[in-house]
C-alpha cells in the first residue's frame, strides 16, 4: 500500500513538472525565445531557423526570433548555448557540423561543454550537394582530378567555415580522389555560394537552400550527393559513393537543442511542440520548398541517434588522420 502511494506521488510530481514546463513555454508574458544559429543570414540553417521560429511563435503565442552567432563552423554558437541559462528561452538549431565536426578541427572547442547540450528533437534533413558553375568545365565527379591537373594553382572548394560538415566532406573528397583541393572557408553558405558564382572558388558543398535557385536557373551544376541515398529532388544525380568516393556517408540533419542542465521535462514538452508543427501540412510544404525534408525524432530517440552519429564521425576523423 505504501509502495503504491509512493508511485502515485512520483507520477504526480512528474506530471506537475511536465505541466509547469508546458505552461512556461506557452506563457505570453514570458521572455522571447531565441533560436541561435551558428552561421550567417541567408544560409540553409538560417533559412530553416526563421521558418521554425515563425511557426513556433504561432504555437507558443510568444515572440521567437533568430540570432546568428557565426564562427568556428558553428562551434561558437553551440558553445554559447551550452552555457546559457537552461530556462527554455535559448535554443540551438544545429547540424552535425556544430555538434561533432567542429570539435574535430578546433581543439579549443573539445572541452567547451558542447557535449552537455540537451537534445530536444531531430526535425529535418537536407541533401548535402556538391556543386560547381556551368562554366567550370567539370561535368561529373570524375572530371575533378583532370581539371586539377590542368590548373597550376589546383582547385579550391568553399565551405560554411572551418570545422563545418562541408569542410569535412570536402577533405574526404580530396583524399579519396587523391587531389589536393584547397579549402576556402566562409562565415556561411550564402557567402560561400556568392564566391562560387563569382568564380573565386571551383567547388562548393552546401545544403539545398542557398544553391537551389541557381541550380534551377542552370548557373550551378550538381555533381553529387554526400548522403548514402540519392535525393528525391535530384533522382538522376548520383551519390559520391556511387562515383567511387569511398568511406562513410554523412547525413545533413537538423535538430534542436537546449542548454546544458535543462530538465528532461522541458525537452519533452518542446519536443511535443515541434512534433505538432511537423504534422502541419502547410508547414511541411514550406520546408520542402526550402529544400528540407521532415524527419522527426523525439528527445529520447534523438539522443540515441546522436550516440551512433558520434561513432560515425570519430571513424571518419580517424580515416582522415584528424
UniProtKB/TrEMBL annotation:
It comes from the Bacteria. Residues 1-26 form the signal peptide. It holds the Pfam family TctC. InterPro entries: BUG, Bug_dom1. Keywords: Signal. Belongs to the UPF0065 (bug) family. This is Tripartite tricarboxylate transporter substrate binding protein.
